[in-house]
What does this fold into?
Amino acid sequence: MSTSVLWLRRDLRLADHPALLAALDDADEVLPLFVLDDALRRPAGAPRLAFLYRCLRDLSERTGGALRVIEGRPEEVVPRVARAVGATGVHISSDHGPYGRGRDARVRDALGDIALVPTGSPYAVTPGSLRKADGTPYRVYTPFARAWAARGVRAPARGPEPSWTDGGQPTDGVPPDPELGEVALPPAGEHAALTAWRRFLDDHVAAYDDNRNRADLDATSGMSVHLKYGTLHPRTMLADLGPGAGESKLAGELIWRDFYADVLWHHPESARTELNPAMRAMTYDDDAGHWRAWATGRTGFPFVDAGMRQLLGQGWVHNRVRMVVASFLVKDLHLHWRRGARHFMTHLRDGDLASNQHGWQWVAGTGTDASPYFRVFNPVKQGLLHDPDGDYVRRWVPELRDVPGAAVHEPWRLPGGLPPGYPERIVDHAAEREEALRRYGVTRG
It folds into this structure.
């Protein structure tokens, strides 16, 4: 019996899996392998690691225990396993992040005459495959989205049931979950992803375009963590949305995901530094008190504080709220976007390097869109717009739970003053907005 190795990374599912189908075409049996790589585990926070481990346990069960989970450096583990089972090839979904590209190159070299075969990717349209007419990459979302729509998306990949083998290879097994404290994670794994997606299609998709910015409603798909780990592929989501899906706001979010991955593919340095070189001269503050207030949700601005406490409580934050809290850190507190991006990657269950870093850069005005440099979100107005009755704030800020209605967004106006335990505002938003615009003006000349 011939054996191929399916080296899993961000594709922890069995359905709609082109790399798995390629592995099946290559051999009689497939050995599923996941490498616990400390280069990726060290910077990951507890929510991401716990969700990953739960996905791996689910996948181990779905492969009848064949999944080999091995700790070590991929360039050592993958060739060792492949040679031990006489693999016809090692099959992967292509990785497009800075670390992943370098890692795969090292593994390819170490495999020697055993082929490393990439098939498919975690994206609807593979990063690097769309370019402008002059051959240069896109730097603006709208023309990228037009090209994305013109290209189209493949149908979900379907094929025969695989024959799994463990190849007689040892496994280190899935580690126990890290300590999560009070963080509550959603169910993990492919079945959980499909269940959550179908529930969204049945109950929420019709109102998504109207309600997606409402932080107080359960109106978003909640699929970001499943896209992060590939327990569901965006191609499946787009197929289920049906003809004309590309015109929907939800498809637009998937296009943004592809766009940011494409930008990172062309500009890997943008994971750590400003995409727009001119903005690297921007001046920032280093106020430890302001940082602690923001990170713990004690800024005195209820909508901001609710978002930061949701991050700590769920490992997730509503997308509209992510933009507001990011704007507050960079433009009200004048702290560097990298600090906020790092904090998010530590605490988010769905932390995705491309989407996270470039979402922060978009808000900070250092990335793909020139407009946000003068767009400073007003945290009170944003709260009134996207949490009009104050339910979101009351859920996450218990000090304000007795404040009725929209008054919760401006507790300093209450006749009796601030409720006990809730802090005063740490800055004057109007003044800091002017200071932010002044700094941007100096930097941009």
